[in-house]
Design goal:
- The chain is an alpha/beta fold.
- It has one domain: Rossmann fold (3-Layer(aba) Sandwich).
- It contains eight helices and seven strands, in the order βαβαβαβααβαβααβ.
- The chain has a seven-stranded parallel beta sheet with strand order 3-2-1-4-5-6-7, with helices on both faces.
- Helix 1 packs across helix 8 and helix 5 packs parallel to helix 6.
- It starts with 7 loop residues before the first strand and ends in an 8-residue tail after the last strand.
Length: about 260
């Protein structure tokens, strides 16, 4: 307890999955959390969980794929709490988004141009929009920690979901570039790259990937990660325990990238 005592943490994607898990975990460790997501009802559920563990914080509904809404969200956090010590970018869509937006998780040759732009805006542009405003505050403070959630598919290829994989690869290299650019401002920038995580994003394929007949098809550990297991990696990189880590890509994948 207390690993983030007194910190202000802005967490995107706070309405579900990894972002929601981090809201409660960071709050339990002493941070005041400011959660952002599109859907107010989901945010309200997340905030109730934060309060249930004795945590403090607030939430703000915004579509971060729109630059003006992203800026408003960051500015609201600064207005409420005066600073941003930690920024965790966990907002985004994954494989299940194909049900809501057909064609968005296709390979290149069948991906419509509008679906490419749509996923790019949600997964990648949002990170840029939030970071560009948060970095100004962190530079003024001369201190800050940014953790961006990418994917192991930002490090290697996949047979489909090519727009998704492109966004995650871009997040990794953007994070490394920011790590180099802002180190003298006291700002650390790191990446958590999960493998398959038990969330709504991939639940439609988990039974195939971790079947009783071949549970180690995609991960030597033979199971998907929990959101808490990914959250602990985010917590470490956000904390002062990771004071010598910047430009790091921490894979949480059950051994998937360890295979030759």
């Amino acid at each position: 307890m207390g690993r983030l005592e007194g910190k202000i943490a802005l967490i995107t994607g706070a309405g579900a999955g990894i972002g929601r898990a981090c809201m409660s975990m960071f709050a339990k460790e002493g941070a005041t959390v400011f959660g952002v997501a599109r859907t107010q009802a989901n945010l309200d559920e997340t905030l109730a969980q934060v309060h249930a563990v004795g945590g403090k914080g607030s939430v703000y509904s915004a579509d971060l794929s729109l630059p003006e809404r992203a800026e408003a969200a960051v500015q609201k956090c600064i207005e409420e709490y005066g600073r941003i010590d930690i920024l965790l970018n966990a907002a985004g869509v994954g494989y299940s988004y194909k049900l809501q937006s057909p064609g968005s998780m296709d390979p290149v040759d069948t991906t419509p141009v509008d679906k490419w732009r749509e996923v790019m805006a949600i997964n990648l542009d949002s990170v840029f929009y939030v970071c560009r405003i948060a970095l100004r505050q962190m530079k003024a403070q001369k201190k800050g920690a940014i953790v961006n959630v990418a994917s192991i598919f930002g490090l290697g290829g996949a047979p489909d979901a090519h727009t998704y994989t492109a966004t995650k690869g871009a997040i990794i290299n953007l994070s490394r570039s920011m790590a180099v650019a802002y180190v003298d401002d006291g700002i650390r920038v790191n990446v958590v790259a999960p493998g398959f995580v038990k969330t709504q994003m991939v639940e439609m394929v988990l039974d195939q990937l971790f079947s009783p007949e071949n549970p180690k098809l995609v991960a030597p550990m033979g199971r998907p990660a929990t959101v808490e297991e990914v959250g602990y990696a985010c917590l470490y990189l956000a904390s002062d325990e990771a004071s010598y880590c910047t430009g790091t890509v921490l894979c949480v994948d059950g051994g998937s990238t360890g295979r030759a």
